[in-house]
Specification:
Blueprint: E1 4-13, H1 20-38, E2 42-50, H2 54-63, H3 67-84, E3 91-94, H4 98-113, E4 117-127, E5 132-134, E6 152-161, H5 167-175, E7 180-182, H6 184-195, E8 201-202, E9 204-205, E10 221-222, H7 224-229, H8 231-238, E11 249-253, H9 257-270, E12 278-282, E13 285-287, E14 290-291, H10 302-309, H11 311-320, E15 328-329, H12 332-360, H13 372-384, H14 388-409, H15 411-414, H16 424-448, H17 453-465
Helix pairs in contact: 2-3, 4-8, 10-11, 11-12, 12-14, 12-16, 13-14, 13-16, 14-16, 16-17
The structure holds 5'-O-[(L-methionyl)-sulphamoyl]adenosine (MSP).
Length: about 475
């Protein structure tokens, strides 16, 4: 039987079209998914959208339509963006799926039955863009640190999940490695916060109508985050996937690590369900140092980027620019530079000139030794550790080396010189040189495949047929 690998992205809020920040996580998930598929694992890759809550209701109201109709109109925009980026997800989750709604209610009832739910009064400030209550010390000049907007005063009676009871259990689970929080620095942050004590969390909303009804008290709806987190679990029933739980990895940015690393595992512990194996929080794309977000209005549209540079170059640039766990600035100019230097002048040019010379000098290619096995192992390990930037750096290094090898060996000097003809030694040497480069490229092809699937396909074909076709034409 194949080994299963269950990977998730967050389900994105459907208040607007996707931007490059959403694309970043989704591309990373797709790279992992393609990588594990290439290792013959049974991959289930889940992405989707988060449709309930005040944020969506407000956006729908602005558009003058019902929330569900609003969400329906945006779903294709997400699916189209993922198609443009060549994202090969297994299923697309929608939280308005009736099966999911039922499962969410059942799990809440179970939490209640087990004594982990209590009704309490709560007063605090709420950021609708985050869909969460903010603590006073989190505010920057009275505003949400991520969105720069002023949160709303809320005072209501809600049902609470008794998160405070789970601090010790969570710490133990983290220490025992039952589930891993990555990167390490984030794990330490989470452990620190648990030590400071966990507060119970509200799991219902009194004044939000657009949501799943709270079982046993229909005057409230289920807090959108609780509804959303359960998608990872309910996907099993929604998509008839037996035995995929626990998830092998939940991917997200650091903004929502708390929900994934604390609240979600605590709920699972309360329900006696297994914990996810890994939770990885990457950094933010920033524009001029500020988080890119729809609320701030400083977003890049992934579709426009794909139109300009092609899916593979965008996938490559997004993951190449900075380490996956850290923040980094992104811009069209940076993508253009990578395209030009590493893809067009680097890989594209290498493939093109190698094949042209093989054809021009009528060389018969023989299999040549390269150090690809250790290189491939190194790259595989980097991908498994989510060090995508380093994996791509390795690959870029191999390409540079092959280009240098050509410069050093100057195949054109070995070519027949006019009427002087061709010496046997030159002919043999030329075949050797070009075979070495050709083999190197054959080895690189599967290494780049998870990142640039289309390019890998094209390379494979060109290296077989020896019919060159520019991989990254000049823009
Ligand atoms: N709906 C919740 C998630 C529920 S999951 C059970 C949500 N949605 S969101 O639309 O705000 O998406 C947040 C996620 O989008 C981040 O965690 C990250 O994966 C991605 N990103 C959004 N903006 C981003 C950047 N500027 N930079 C990097 N990733 C970004 O939270």
């Amino acid at each position: 039987m194949k080994k299963k690998f269950y990977i998730t992205t967050p389900i994105y809020y459907i208040n607007d079209v996707p931007h490059v920040g959403h694309a970043y996580t989704t591309v990373a998930a797709d790279v992992l998914s393609r990588y594990y598929k290439s290792k013959d694992e049974d991959v289930f890759f889940l992405t989707g959208v988060d449709e309930h809550g005040a944020k969506i209701a407000e956006a729908a109201k602005k558009a003058g339509v019902e929330p569900k109709a609003f969400a329906d109109s945006l779903v294709p925009r997400f699916q189209e963006a993922w198609k443009n980026l060549n994202i090969n997800y297994s299923e697309f989750f929608r939280t308005t799926n009736p099966k999911h709604e039922e499962i969410v209610q059942d799990l809440i009832l179970e939490l209640k039955d087990k004594g982990f739910v209590e009704k309490k009064k709560y007063t605090g400030v709420y950021c609708v863009a985050c869909e969460k209550f903010l603590l006073p010390d989190e505010l920057v000049d009275g505003c949400c640190p991520d969105h720069g907007t002023k949160p709303e005063e809320h005072s209501e009676e809600n049902y609470f999940f008794l998160l405070s009871k789970f601090g010790d259990k969570l710490s133990k689970a983290i220490e025992a490695g039952d589930y891993e929080i990555l990167p390490e620095s984030r794990k330490n942050e989470v452990i620190g916060k648990i030590k400071n004590g966990l507060e119970d969390v509200s799991i219902s909303r009194e004044k939000v109508e657009w949501g799943i009804l709270f079982p046993g008290d229909e005057s409230q709806t289920i807090y959108v985050w609780i509804d959303a987190l359960i998608n990872y679990w309910s996907a099993q029933k929604v998509f008839n996937q037996d035995n995929i739980w626990p998830a092998d990895i939940h991917l997200m940015a650091k903004d929502i690590l708390w929900f994934h690393a604390i609240i979600w595992p605590a709920m699972l512990l309360a329900l006696d369900l297994p914990l996810p194996k890994k939770v990885f929080a990457h950094g933010f794309f920033t524009i001029g140092g500020q988080k890119m977000s729809k609320t701030r209005g400083n977003v890049l549209d992934p579709n426009t980027l794909v139109e300009k540079f092609g899916a593979d170059a965008v996938r490559y640039s997004l993951l190449r620019e900075f380490p996956f766990g850290e923040d980094g600035d992104i811009s069209e100019e940076k993508i253009a530079n990578r395209y030009q230097s590493e893809l067009s002048n680097g890989l594209g040019n290498l493939v093109q000139r190698t094949i042209s010379m093989i054809n021009k000098y009528e060389i018969r290619i023989s299999k040549s030794e390269t150090n690809s096995k250790s290189e491939t192992r190194k790259i595989s390990k980097l991908i498994e550790d989510l060090k995508f930037d380093q994996a791509l750096q390795e690959i870029a290094g191999e390409i540079t080396k092959l280009n240098q090898y050509i410069e050093e060996n100057k195949p054109w000097e070995l070519a027949p010189k006019g009427s002087l003809g061709w010496t046997k030694t030159d002919q043999t040497k030329l075949a050797e040189v070009l075979s070495h480069v050709h083999s190197g490229l054959v080895d690189i092809t599967p290494q780049i495949a998870p990142f640039m699937p289309e390019t890998a396909e094209k390379m494979k074909k060109q290296l077989e047929t020896l019919e060159p076709d520019p991989l990254f034409p000049r823009i």
